[in-house]
What does this fold into?
Amino acid sequence: MPRMLLAAAGLCLVLGCGSDAVGPEGDLVGGACADDLQCRETCVASDSHYPGGMCTVRCESDAACPHDTMCVDDAGGICAVTCLDPGDCADFGRGWTCRSVGRKGASGDTLVCRAD
It folds into this structure.
């Protein structure tokens, strides 16, 4: 049983089970960044859909993304923070809103926080 707890704890460290990992201040997905050193994984700094840069995880499907994020077809496949309405994205800053975006690794669209 202790091995299972250690494995779960390790998975949480990698995927960001804590609330500080995902969202406007998240160092895994959602936080503003200028380069990869500010993020656990990678920074998408040159994509106009994520002004000010955004920490993220590269993905081919939702399975690679932490809780409360989905794999979208931006920047070659990245995890983005999910939302239900524009108010969910207000803390990301001016210009950010809840947008319908094509999914990567699955059909259809999903709602995520990003700019036009």
